[in-house]
Amino acid sequence: MGPGRVVGALGPPPSTEPGRFGRPLPGRSQLPDLGQPRSATRASGRLADGASTVTPSASQGAAMPAVVVVGAQWGDEGKGKATDQLGQDVDYVVKFNGGNNAGHTVVIDGEAFALHLLPAGVLTPGVTPVIGNGVVVDLEVLFSEIAEIASRGRDASALRISASAHLIPSYNRVLDRTTERFLGERRLGTTGRGIGPTYADKMNRVGIRVQDLFDESILRQKVHSALDQKNGLFLKIFNRPAIDPDAVTDDLLSYAERVRPMVIDCSLVLNEALDDGKTVLFEAGQATMLDIDHGTYPFVTSSSPTAGGACTGTGVGPTRIDSVVGVVKAYATRVGEGPFPTEVTGVEGERLRSEGGEYGVTTGRPRRCGWHDAVVTRYAARVNGLTDLVMTKLDVLTGYETIPVCVAYDVDGVRTEEMPLTQSDVHHAVPVYEELPGWREDITGVREFSDLPAEARTYVTRIEELARTRVSAIGVGPGREATITRHRLLG
Ligand code: GDP
Ligand code: IMO
Ligand code: MG
C-alpha cells in the first residue's frame, strides 16, 4: 500500500464478541496492545533486537498483517473476488500454489477480468503482486496474460516472481493431455495445463526453475535429462513423436530477459515486508478438496492449496500468519471427475448452473452443481485452521421454497459428521440433509446483514454453526461492492 492509503475500508469495526462456538474467535481485541507493531511482540523473539527499528508504514497498526485466503470446497468459490476486495487494503498479494489451471474472476465497475496465473492484486494500483515458489509458471501464458490486462489499461510492471518457482515446459502440457487421453474412462479431468507433470518433476527432482533461465548450460542439461525419460514414454507408450530438447531450451531462453527484472527471493522480500509492518495477502489457487494431501485423492490437483501451502509456497513461516479466510459458495460446485456427495443432476442441477453461471473460467466446462455440504466446510475449517468464512453467491439461492444443507453423511448405514477416512467411504457417502426455509426477495442490493430476509440470515447462521467458524462476509453479486461485511477481515 502506498503512503496515505486508508487501511480497512471493508466495513464496520471488528467484532469483540467472544467466540460463539466454544473456541475464541480471533479479533483485534485479542491482540497484545503494546503500542508497537505486532511482528515485534511475538513470543518467538525473532525480532527481539530489531523491534525498535521497525519502520512505520501506512499499513502499520493493521491487526492482520498476514492473511491467507483459501478455497474451502472444490474450487471456484469466488477467491478472486475476495482477494481483489481485500487487496484494496494490502501491500502484497502472493499466489502460493497451482498455476494457470486456476481461473479467478474479478469484476471491477462491471468489467470482468479472468486471471489464471497472475495474482488478483495485479489489478490494484499500489499492490505488489508476487508469484511464490510454490507456483508452477507457464511463461507463454504469463506474458499473454500480462499483454491481455495491459490491453485493458492495467499495468503489471510491479509483478515479482520467485527464483525458485518451477516452470511448465511445453512437454509437460503435452504429457498432461496425452495421459488424460490414455486414461480414457479413468481420467481425472485435469485442465490439461501441464500442472500434474510439472509438480511430479519437482518432486522427482528433474524440474526446471525460473533461476535456470539465467544459466543456459544448466538449463540445456536439465531439459535434456528430463526429456531423456519423457521421450521414452512419448515414443514407446504413447506412440507420439519425441520432443527436441534444444528447441524446448531455446523457447524457454527466449523469455529470460523479460523475466529477469521480475525475479526475487520471495521469502526474503515477504519476511522483510512483514518486518516493516506491511500487509501481505496469500492467495490460493484451487481449494481444500483438491489438495494433494487433504482432498479427494486421486481426484485432486498436484499442489497444496490449503493454508500450510502458503508457508511452503512462499518461504514465510507459520508463526507469521495471522488469519486464514476460507471462501465457500452458499451451495457447491466441482469441475472434473471425483466424488461430490451433494451433487444434484437433472433440472435442479441445471437451475443452479444457469442461475449461478457455473461454467469453468479456464476450460469453459459446465461445473457440476450441488447443495452446501457442511461436512466439507467443517473439514476445511479444521485442515486450514480457518479463522473466518466468506460465503459467496447467496444471491443465487433466492427463489427456493426450501434449501437443503448437508449436515452429515450416511456411509453404509452409519451416520458420520466427519469426512470419511477412506476413499471408498467417501464414494459411498450419502448426504443427510436439513431443509432450511428459502426466501424470495431480491438480495443483490443488500449491504447490511440485518437487512437480509430472516430466512437468508438463518441460512448463513446455520452454516456458521455447522462449520464452527464465523461467516464474516457474504457475497450477493459478482461486483466488488456486492458484499455484506459482518466482521472485518483486515485491520
Ligand atoms: P475462484 O476461482 O474461486 O476465484 O472463482 P471463479 O472466478 O472461478 O468463480 C466464481 C464466480 O462467481 C465468478 O464468476 C465470480 O464473478 C462470481 N461471484 C463471486 N462472488 C459472487 C457472488 O457473491 N454472487 C454472484 N452472483 N456471483 C459471484
Ligand atoms: P480455481 O483456482 C476448479 C481441478 C480440475 C481437475 C483437477 C486436476 O479457479 O478454483 P489439474 O489441471 O489441476 O491437474 O486438474 O483439479 N481444478 C480446478 N477445479 N477450480 C480450479 O481452480 C481448478 N484447478 C484445477 O478440474 O478436476
Ligand atoms: Mg475459478
Features:
disordered N terminus; 28% helix; 491 residues; binds guanosine-5'-diphosphate; binds 6-O-phosphoryl inosine monophosphate; binds magnesium ion; 13 helices; ten-stranded mixed sheet
Helices and strands, with pairings:
Elements: E1 66-71, H1 79-86, E2 92-95, E3 104-108, E4 111-115, E5 128-131, E6 136-137, H2 139-151, E7 160-162, E8 166-167, H3 170-183, H4 195-203, H5 216-237, H6 245-253, H7 256-259, E9 263-264, H8 266-275, E10 280-283, H9 307-312, E11 323-329, E12 332-334, H10 346-356, E13 368-370, E14 372-373, H11 374-384, E15 388-392, E16 402-411, E17 414-416, H12 423-428, E18 430-437, H13 454-467, E19 471-475, E20 483-485
Parallel strand pairs: 1-10, 1-11, 2-5, 2-10, 5-7, 6-8, 7-9, 11-15, 14-16, 15-19
Antiparallel strand pairs: 3-4, 12-13, 16-17, 16-18, 19-20
Helix pairs in contact: 3-4, 5-6
The site of magnesium ion (MG) has 6 residues, from loops.
Give the total of beta strands.
20
Distance between the termini: 13 Å
Mean pLDDT: 88
What is the overall shape? globular
Overall structural class, as computed from helix and strand content, comes to alpha/beta
Strand order of the largest sheet: 9-7-5-2-10-1-11-15-19-20
Bound ligands, named by name, code or SMILES = guanosine-5'-diphosphate, 6-O-phosphoryl inosine monophosphate, magnesium ion
Beta fraction: 15-25%
What is the helix content? 25-40%
Largest sheet: 10 strands, mixed
Q: Give unreliable regions as ranges.
A: 1-62
As a whole number of angstroms, the C-alpha radius of gyration is: 23 Å
Tally of contiguous helical segments? 13
